[in-house]
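Postdoc handover notes: sequence design on the structure in folder B. Input tokens:
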């Protein structure tokens, strides 16, 4: 499937945002660009101001990651929070190659302020320096730490969910599989925000989004190749690294999955929701018409982004019984 196929059009409001971002945001990321894109993120210097403005306090904790190596998590909660409430374990996006534990964290801040949730967000190690299984195993180690410390964290163990966007959505799906298979915590849900699930580069949506939008086919191959090296696209890839490969999705927690109709991940996300239903697992799926990858973060003012966030927030509130 080498040629670029005709794709669904971008939503007009979102297309205007893409035009504005064109100089800052190349649609295609190649391996040599990874170091250049790893500079300090625009929000990095302002994260404490952002949290303070929202009435949220942060505590950083060093914990054991994959193979016992030290990694860091941040615990986020409302200032002065007491008692017990829901918990969210967050895995950030960035294509397995970029970002930090605060990437995309604004997607979960409302769950802290409005639903009294505690968020634990993990600094998993990035590919290609730390290829598979480091990202998913670091992430799972952080989930186990969270589950072991629910009392101290003020988290109701019956209301603990995993959530992540893009690569973080793939990692959230991967650690939900690990928790099922390795006797980990019983999760109340998994929020998979336009998740990165399939390394094989064989879907129609992958061929459609090539040289356009955000995180196109080239970027996706770059990310998966950094994570898996020569194993990408072969039979030697774990279902925890690429959850789209899982053939048994039974016994998983309820899932919320969303994506845009004009993004690389559309078809694998729809297929994953379908596979969950086939396995008897409850899943809610939203495919937002004309949405590019990550449009809720890059065009939060848009009508479509507000609808996307509203549907997601509603699912989380229902899952927590709030």
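Designed sequence:
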């Amino acid at each position: 499937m080498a040629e670029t196929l005709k794709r669904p059009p971008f939503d007009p409001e979102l297309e205007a945002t893409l035009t504005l971002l064109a100089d800052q945001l190349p649609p295609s990321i190649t391996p040599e660009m990874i170091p250049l894109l790893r500079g300090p993120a625009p929000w990095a210097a302002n994260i404490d101001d952002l949290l303070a403005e929202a009435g949220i306090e942060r505590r950083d904790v060093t914990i054991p990651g994959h193979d016992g190596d030290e990694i860091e998590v941040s615990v986020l909660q409302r200032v002065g929070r007491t008692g017990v409430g829901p918990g969210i374990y967050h895995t950030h996006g960035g294509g397995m190659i970029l970002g930090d534990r605060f990437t995309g964290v604004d997607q979960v801040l409302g769950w802290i302020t409005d639903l009294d949730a505690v968020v634990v967000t993990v600094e998993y190690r990035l590919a290609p320096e730390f290829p598979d299984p480091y990202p998913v195993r670091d992430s799972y180690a952080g989930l186990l730490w969270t589950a072991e410390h629910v009392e101290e964290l003020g988290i109701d163990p019956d209301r603990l969910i995993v959530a992540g966007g893009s690569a973080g959505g793939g990692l959230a799906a991967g650690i939900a599989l690990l928790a099922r298979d390795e006797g980990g915590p019983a999760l109340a849900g998994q929020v998979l925000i336009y998740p990165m699930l399939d390394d094989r580069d064989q879907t129609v949506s992958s061929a459609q989004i090539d040289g356009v939008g955000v995180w196109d086919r080239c970027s996706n191959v770059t990310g998966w190749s950094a994570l898996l090296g020569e194993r990408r696209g072969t039979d030697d890839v774990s279902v925890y690294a690429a959850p789209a490969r899982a053939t048994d999705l039974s016994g998983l927690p309820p899932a919320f999955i969303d994506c845009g109709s004009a993004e690389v991940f559309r078809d694998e996300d729809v297929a994953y929701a379908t596979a969950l239903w086939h396995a008897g697992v409850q899943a809610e799926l939203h495919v937002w018409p004309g949405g590019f990858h990550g449009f809720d973060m890059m065009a939060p003012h848009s009508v479509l982004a507000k609808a996307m966030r509203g549907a997601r927030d509603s699912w989380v509130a229902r899952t927590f019984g709030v």
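Context for whoever picks this up: The beta strands are 56-64, 70-78, 85-91, 118-123, 155-165, 189-193, 255-260, 283-288. Don't rerun without checking with the PI first.
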